[in-house]
Amino acid sequence: MSNIIEVDAAIVGSGQAAPALATALAQRGERVAFIEAVQLGGSCVNHGCTPTKTLRKSARVAYLARRAAEFGVRVGPVEVDFAAAMERMQLRVDTARAGLESWIAGEKNITLLRAWGSFAGRGAAGFDLLAGEQPVRAGRVYLNTGTRAFIPAIPGLKDVPYLDNVSLLKLRTRPRHLVVIGGSYIGLEMGQIFRRLGSEVTIIETGPRITSREDPEVSECIAAFLREEGITVMAGQPVSRVERAGDGVAVLVGDARVEGSHLLVATGRLPNTERLNLAAVGVETDERGFIPTNARLETNVPGIWALGDINKRGAFTHTSYHDHEIALANHDGGRRSADDRTMTYAMFTDPPLGRVGMSEVEARASGKRILVATFDMKNVSRAKEESETTGLVKLLVDADTERFVGATVLGINGDEVIQVIGNFMAAGASWRAMKDALPIHPTVTEFLPTILGRLKPLAQRR
Predict the structure, then answer these.
(1) Which phi and psi (to 5°) does residue 413 adopt?
(2) What is the domain-level CATH number for residue 38?
């Protein structure tokens, strides 16, 4: 094994934790092996945030153009050039990935190995890995291999040309009728986007309601605005079978038969850990293949960290990037903990959903004395001025500590507004400080003090 590459750290996978961690270690003089078999940037850059939010903008422009008369603007018939919108999206992806590749290539202490990475064993000098057939020995190993679409065992599914979140973005001909199995974030975001780009869309959720992790009135509001745009939303019935229907597909849902030209399966995620040969070094996984970690993101094997989606501590780009900060800080002697962070996330439907901390259902189950206030977006001046009045704001406060425990902002700029609450939670600040602060008018955020003035005990809320 004379051609072995010996490094201080090996990073397997190039999700959002990996590039920043690799360059930070390299700039400190450490030798880093960066192992990636497919494309740099992971899900976010290649088939997640970057392409979908780019495509979302094209869809929103089409949506606003159709509403132009509401704002006193006259336009002709609105036509979507589907292929052009998809190519705009692809250009953004290619540009982002090229920038990332240039960044990594510019670091002299990083060896980029374009191959599948796996463990081969361990010894006194560290961990032995293979990048394809290239042996690598590393003192520390960071795993950031992400997730892929979970495909359920629905009878007939394997016999039809279904799409997942990756293959959907490769389309250049607009689907006539896109049928989506899965009523969570990917399914709802892509369903709305494709509807605005001109496809008929049916969303099928086998659970009792879409966005089941959210409070019921939030789910109802989302379902309502999707239906207003012409999307068929079905929930509460099992999918019994999928089969071909001419050139398209048919989904059997309860007593109904839904036929479409294309089928998107968006029913959850699976970790990309099965090719890592974790057994060779004794790294433990749960029954689905996710890798448990402690608060420092260390696996059960000292010297091996699991970052990003595979550690089941948040399937988001921002949690993966935050993971790298925690691992790096602790490598420098810090004491940062993943247990200390409050989960903040957004669903990028239009309007978007911003969420942090507990939902009302979770707050009721917490045993804490909770104060709650809810305010409809239709009463927010900025929302009325922009004719974006769909949604609501809900704030949850611990009555004893005066700290926020959670919030929901469904509506215009909800993905941005929610971070105000998230920052207050991170700082441990009292809600009274926000209530007494001077806000800017006219904004959505200016209503937060007003909403806080309506706090009532959760038990008394009807």
Answers:
(1) 60, 20
(2) 3.50.50.60
13: region left, alpha or beta (phi > 0 left; psi from -120 to 50 alpha):
left
Q: What is the pLDDT of residues 351-398, one digit of tens each?
A: 999 999 999 999 999 999 999 999 999 999 999 999 999 999 999 999
- Helix 317-331 and helix 18-27, axial crossing angle in degrees, nearest 10: 30
Kind and range of the H or E element at 59? helix 49-66
75-127 pLDDT, tens digit per residue, is 999 999 999 999 999 999 999 999 999 999 999 999 999 999 999 999 888 99
Would residue 132 count as lying in a domain? yes
What is the chain's mean pLDDT, rounded? 96
The answer on 143 and 16 residing in a single domain is yes
Structural domain of residue 447, as residue ranges?
344-456
Domain membership of residue 461 (yes or no) is no
Q: What is the pTM of this model?
A: 0.95
- The answer to whether the beta carbons of residues 244 and 250 sit under 8 Å apart is yes
Query: In whole angstroms, how far apart are CA 442 and each of 90, 279, 293, 446, 452?
Result: 36, 57, 44, 7, 18
Residue 442 belongs to a domain: yes
Q: Cα–Cα distance between 339 and 329 in angstroms, integer? A: 15
| 343 CB-contact burial (10 Å; exposed 0-12 / middle 13-18 / buried 19+) | middle
Residues in the chain: 462
